[in-house]
Amino acid sequence: MDTATACYGNDVSEFPSSNFFASAGEGIWDNGAACGRQYLVRCISAVVPMTCIAGQTIQIKIVDRAVTSVSRPSRNGATMVLSTTAFGAVANASASSINIEFQQYGRPVKIINENDKGGV
């Protein structure tokens, strides 16, 4: 079985030591620009009540593309496929899928000065 990722091939040094990583769904894949992005993730709901671990937010790193990953999404259109460790940190591990809230973390801020705006 090939375990290479779409982002880093077989370079396991790119996986965070916490094992909090994910594969990006098509909605955030961004033609591969998602590779290496960090997100703060928390479970907000699931079909089964009491699935989410209340107040638990984790930081994950995108290391793969969901449609080509070894662990495929449990349903089409998934935003992220969390590693088993990451999933278990925010929700009951026996759940098949959860709804998450996520925010990109550590995104650089681009400063635009007046000369960069185009103008007259």
From TrEMBL:
Q: Which residues cross the membrane?
A: none
Which InterPro entries does its entry note?
Answer: Expansin/allergen_DPBB_dom (IPR007112), RlpA-like_DPBB (IPR009009), RlpA-like_sf (IPR036908)
The record's section on CDD domains has: DPBB_EG45-like
Q: What is the protein name given in its UniProt record?
A: Expansin-like EG45 domain-containing protein
Q: Which residues form a coiled coil?
A: none
**Which source organism does the UniProt entry give?**
Vitis vinifera (Grape)
**Sequence ranges assigned to domain Expansin-like EG45 in this UniProt record:** 4-104
